[in-house]
Structure formats: structure tokens, C-alpha cells
Design brief:
By secondary structure, the protein is of the alpha/beta class. It is built from 11 helices and 8 strands. Bound molecules: phosphoenolpyruvate.
Length: 255
């Protein structure tokens, strides 16, 4: 039985005051999502203060990025052991904004994944196709190559308890969501791809959906067999919206 994961990617949003208000709201409703793992990924400058605020509230902390290096002359980068030391349990790896805006390649994403695991973090590996790639019928080829780059580097053993996030690029921040059937098809494909490597890996790996998930569509998405949670951008910035998704996950887990 895989525990549902509902993760908030705050991207480059927030302030000390706004974060405190958001976290207070999430903590106040935490009990409504009992049994669901909650994760927040604030901007790096706020990791330590969010760690302090979430420590006693059963809310995990993650970074939005991690270096492929463990230490050294890499100005502006954040190493996995450092993130771990300030309280992170997770790190997003290969978010489409990192791939598109900062030129991260599949090979670099795989190196970051490996460094995250080596530094004691659980990677959330983001994969997904652009609209052009979907319309050309290349969705499976794209996500397959993104996943294979990591598996080829770390193997089934090195994959550990990593999470895979299927995030169609055309659905991120656009208000367009994959239909439950479209999402389920890709999630099932990803799980089958993991099963070809190792059956137990496929069974234990949580594959979460991301792309304009909100209260209104979360119920149907989270009810799909191979959707084990959500990676949420915009709707994670409002406690009520984030909790509403988490409550749908609780209901899906109980169904
Ligand atoms: C994301 O940034 O991972 C994301 C899914 O964003 P949004 O929910 O805003 O589409």
C-alpha cells in the first residue's frame, strides 16, 4: 500500500510573513488529511525557518533543487548534505522549469538524483512532455527517456524510495489539466517501465501527478489506480486549496 503524497512547490513565492500565515493554515487543517503525507518545498532562503515551523506538525520539507556536487567551488548551488542538515527530507529534481529555463539535461538531472540520494534526500523526479511532443505522439518516448536517464545511472537499488512526478509541461501553471484518463495512461506506462527494471520497485514507487491540480479536479485524478498523490504549484500557496487536495487524497486512500 503506497501512502499518498501531497506536495506543494511554492516556486519563487512567499515571504516570512506569508509563509507563517500559510503554514499556520495548513497546520490548523492537518488533521483533515490524516494518513496523507504532506510536503512543502519553499524557496531556499526560507528552508530553515519553514523547518522550524513544521517540525512538530507532521509536514515534510523539501528543496526545489539540489546540486549534483557534494561540496566545493559551485557558487550559488546547494548540496544535498546541506539541505539535509537544515531539515529537508526531499528535493525536487528535474522540474520542467529547471529543464526549460536553466537548461538542465537528462544527464544532469540523473546526476542530481544520485547526489540527492547520496546526501540522504528522497528525490522527487519530475518528468513530462511539452504540448508539441504530446501532439506528435511522443509522450511515452519523452517520459521514458527522462526516467531511463536516471535508472541507467543509479539502477533499481539506487532508486531507493524516490518519487516520480508526472508533470505534463503544457499543464503546469496554465490552468489546463490532463484528464484523469490521460494522466492515468502515462502513470501506468511509467509504472510498467519501472516494473521492467524491478517489480518491487514499481509496486513501491509513488507516482504523483502535477499540472494545475486543484480542489475541483483532484478527486478524479487521485482516484486513478496509478496516481499516488500530487505535486501542486499555484494551489499550494493557499492553505485552504492545498488542504482540499490533501483531503481528496485521504478520501482516495480510504476508498
Ligand atoms: C508545478 O510547479 O510543479 C506545478 C504543477 O504547478 P501548477 O500546479 O501551478 O500547475
Amino acid at each position: 500500500m503506497r501512502t499518498y503524497l501531497v506536495a506543494g512547490n511554492w516556486k519563487m513565492n512567499g515571504s516570512l510573513a506569508a509563509n507563517a500565515e500559510l503554514l499556520a493554515g495548513v497546520q490548523a487543517g492537518r488533521a483533515d488529511a490524516a494518513g496523507v503525507e504532506l510536503l512543502v518545498c519553499p524557496p531556499a532562503p526560507y528552508l530553515a525557518s519553514v523547518a522550524a515551523a513544521t517540525a512538530d506538525h507532521d509536514i515534510a520539507l523539501g528543496a526545489q533543487n539540489v546540486s549534483e556536487h557534494a561540496s566545493g567551488a559551485f557558487t550559488g548551488e546547494m548540496a544535498a548534505p546541506m539541505l539535509r542538515e537544515v531539515g529537508c527530507a526531499y528535493a525536487l529534481v528535474g522540474h520542467s522549469e529547471r529543464r526549460t529555463l536553466y537548461g538542465e539535461t537528462d544527464a544532469q538531472v540523473a546526476a542530481k538524483f544520485e547526489a540527492a540520494v547520496a546526501g540522504g534526500l528522497v528525490p522527487v523526479l519530475c518528468v513530462g512532455e511539452t504540448l508539441e511532443q504530446r501532439e506528435a505522439g511522443n509522450t511515452e518516448a519523452v517520459v521514458s527517456a527522462q526516467l531511463a536517464a536516471v535508472i541507467d545511472r543509479v539502477g533499481a537499488d539506487g532508486f531507493g524510495d524516490a518519487v516520480v512526478a508526472y508533470e505534463p509541461v503544457w499543464a503546469i501553471g496554465t490552468g489546463k489539466t490532463a484528464t484523469p484518463e490521460q494522466a492515468q495512461d502515462v502513470h501506468a506506462f511509467l509504472r510498467a517501465s519501472l516494473a521492467k527494471v524491478d517489480e518491487a520497485l514499481a509496486m513501491r514507487t509513488r507516482i504523483v501527478y502535477g499540472g494545475s491540480m486543484k480542489a475541483a479536479n483532484a478527486g478524479e485524478l487521485l482516484a486513478q489506480t496509478d496516481i499516488d498523490g500530487g505535486l501542486i504549484g499555484g494551489a499550494s500557496l493557499k492553505a485552504e486549496a492545498f488542504l482540499a487536495i490533501a483531503t481528496h487524497a485521504r478520501d482516495a486512500a480510504g476508498a
